Amino acid sequence: MEFIKTETHFNFVGMMKIAVIGSVAFIILGIASVIYHGGLNLGIDFAGGTLIQVKFKNEVNIEHIREALKPLGFERSIIQQFGVQEVLIRTAELSEDLKGLSGNIDSAFKTSFGEDTYDVRRVEVVGPKVGKDLTQKAIFAIIFSWIGILIYVGIRFEFRYALGGIIALVHDILVTVTALSLAGKEFDLNIVAALLTIVGFSINDTIVVFDRIRENTRKNIKLQLNECINLSVNQTLSRTILTSLTVLMVLLVLFIFGGTVIHDFTFALLFGVLAGTYSTVFIASPIVLLFEKIKPSKIKRKK
């Protein structure tokens, strides 16, 4: 199926400066958001603490929940509401007795809301040492994925391609984290899984374009590299849009109907897939051109 004809002649390289300025501005906005909020909204996987998920049968007020938690000392907890009936309660308090804690919560809610008006779906506790260890492993996982991809692309293509691919991946991660910070989403292990998925999706899309660029540079020796890049991106544009569009449709359905458990995960993937498609066209390939100007390849092109 050909969604866009290969005869298109969009000047993607010519839009490189505007694209880079837009990306940098959005990432700076994300950095400002993180600073303003005092860091990312870390989940208990990283920050440590207690997470309580409760679903009520009727509409509930957050302040009413906070009042109900006062006897337990959880009145300063962060309460995140999903719809009008379900809430996530995150507190820095730690407890090794999960059954006792769950019973205390049940008693407190029973007193405030009445019996059979709610359902305590889960109570999870993560200690600070575990949270710190998970944070380090999450950072290492993302960095090692970048290093592995850098080596693979460098061997399969050239260093300039590997550099373009890695910069595009860093861009995708930063854009996704910016979206999470601006939306106030919780950053937990599910988000790390989403980021690693984004890395895999984005580099796969980028390699397809890189492969076409390499093919065209060898077939069309008279063309300048910027012309080869534009030609290659236009030739693979239909494939790029169809692939991304099908993935986005699935993610959108999961985001709307998947429930609260995977809500933040699919939110991150939605932005990540969009960023990955955007960076393949406007970031990765132009970086190859920029590096070519700094250090030309061995293939001599006719001017």
Short description:
The chain is of the alpha+beta class and 303 residues long. The protein has helices at 16-36, 44-47, 62-69, 98-113, 128-156, 159-183, 189-219, 225-235, 237-257, 263-294, and strands at residues 49-56, 78-82, 86-91, 118-126.
Explain this structure.
A hairpin with a 3-residue loop joins strand 2 and strand 3 (86-91). The protein folds into 2 domains: 13-37 and 130-294, Multidrug efflux transporter AcrB transmembrane domain (Multidrug efflux transporter AcrB transmembrane fold), CATH 1.20.1640.10; 49-126, 2-Layer Sandwich (Alpha-Beta Plaits). The chain has a 4-stranded antiparallel β-sheet with strand order 2-3-1-4. The chain has 10 helices and 4 strands. It is an alpha+beta fold.
List the helices and strands and how they pair.
Layout: H1 16-36, H2 44-47, E1 49-56, H3 62-69, E2 78-82, E3 86-91, H4 98-113, E4 118-126, H5 128-156, H6 159-183, H7 189-219, H8 225-235, H9 237-257, H10 263-294
Antiparallel strand pairs: 1-3, 1-4, 2-3
Helix pairs in contact: 1-6, 3-4, 5-6, 5-7, 6-7, 6-10, 7-8, 7-10, 8-10, 9-10
Category from helices, strands and their pairing: alpha+beta
Count of domain modules: 2
The total beta strand count reads 4
> Could you give the order of the helices and strands?
HHEHEEHEHHHHHH
